[in-house]
């Protein structure tokens, strides 16, 4: 059976960075394939990951277990036929809960080796109340406190305590028996998504048969807007644009060329924080930003 990992976490928690760092380091000698299930019609993470991997297949937004099940099954068949991977990695949308992905993977003959939820330790208090966040945590058996370099020990301890509390309150349970799907979890603390090799050695494999719960596991309502730029921007103008976003904007991510830098910049904006340290040397597409905020509806 094909081994699969599900990587979940709220918008801006660091899922793509984890794929770029830990996975590339620990799985570099194995045949891996990645499916990116993104929010919006522009696949930001897919464009970024294609600069590091070739076996990346993007799916449009939506719940994989229902509206996208046919595409997901087709994607897995295509990946197996073309690449015969040893490991499949599924990065969920930051606006989605992981249970439908887990359910679909099992129904398609994959072994779910682990579900890891990334938590932005620096911004956690800004989104910890979101239902999506709580179900992402409760549906995982690996909890990763990311961006620990940005917080002090006191705040990190506070975030850890709240994450553990949420896990116990929201953990998945079998619909028929009431038993928890995951009896325990493993907690990691890291920066830049760098994790130890044990995470990818299949020691947390989900062996229970999953059943669909009564809850409606779908994305919560968010709005997104795509901004395109025909010409390179001045660096300061790009920064000013991002800093002018209202507080309702959770996330902005994209690839933008600026006049002062020869390589395209990966834009990572989350809850007012900005990172422009990553570049894409071989990027050939348009400059764009996907801006995501909570819907008023």
TrEMBL record:
InterPro entries: CobW-likC_sf, CobW-like_C, CobW/HypB/UreG_nucleotide-bd, P-loop_NTPase, Zinc-reg_GTPase_activator
Pfam family, one: CobW_C
Superkingdom field: Bacteria
Catalytic activity, reaction form: GTP + H2O = GDP + phosphate + H(+)
GO molecular function: hydrolase activity; nucleotide binding
GO cellular component: cytoplasm
Keyword DNA-binding (UniProt): no
Entry keywords, A to Z: Chaperone, Hydrolase, Nucleotide-binding
Keyword Zinc: no
Function comment: Zinc chaperone that directly transfers zinc cofactor to target proteins, thereby activating them. Zinc is transferred from the CXCC motif in the GTPase domain to the zinc binding site in target proteins in a process requiring GTP hydrolysis.
Annotated family: Belongs to the SIMIBI class G3E GTPase family. ZNG1 subfamily.
Record protein name field: Cobalamin biosynthesis protein
Gene: cobW
């Amino acid at each position: 059976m094909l081994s699969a990992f599900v990587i979940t976490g709220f918008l801006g928690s660091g899922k793509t960075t984890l794929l770029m760092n830990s996975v590339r380091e620990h799985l570099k000698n194995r045949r891996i394939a990645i499916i990116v299930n993104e929010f919006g019609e522009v696949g930001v993470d897919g464009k970024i990951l294609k600069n590091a991997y070739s076996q990346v297949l993007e799916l449009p937004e939506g719940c994989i277990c229902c509206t996208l099940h046919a595409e997901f099954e087709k994607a897995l068949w295509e990946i197996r036929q073309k690449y015969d991977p040893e490991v499949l990695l599924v990065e969920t949308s930051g606006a989605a809960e992981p249970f439908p992905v887990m359910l679909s993977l099992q129904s398609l003959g994959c072994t779910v080796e682990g579900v890891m939820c990334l938590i932005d330790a620096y911004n956690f208090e800004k989104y910890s109340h979101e239902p999506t966040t709580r179900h992402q945590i409760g549906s995982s058996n690996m909890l990763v406190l990311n961006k620990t370099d940005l917080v002090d020990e006191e705040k990190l301890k506070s975030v850890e305590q709240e994450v553990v509390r949420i896990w116990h309150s929201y953990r998945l349970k079998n619909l028929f028996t009431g038993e928890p799907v995951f009896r325990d979890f493993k907690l990691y603390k890291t920066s830049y998504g760098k994790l130890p090799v044990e995470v990818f050695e299949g020691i947390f494999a989900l062996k229970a048969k999953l059943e669909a719960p009564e809850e409606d596991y779908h994305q919560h309502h968010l709005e997104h807007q795509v901004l395109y730029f025909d010409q390179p921007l001045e660096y300061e103008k790009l920064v000013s644009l991002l800093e002018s976003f209202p507080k309702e904007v959770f996330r902005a991510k994209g690839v933008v060329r600026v006049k002062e830098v020869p390589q395209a910049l990966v834009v990572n904006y989350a809850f007012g924080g900005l990172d422009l340290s990553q570049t894409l040397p071989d990027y050939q597409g348009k400059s764009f930003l996907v801006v995501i905020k909570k819907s008023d509806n």
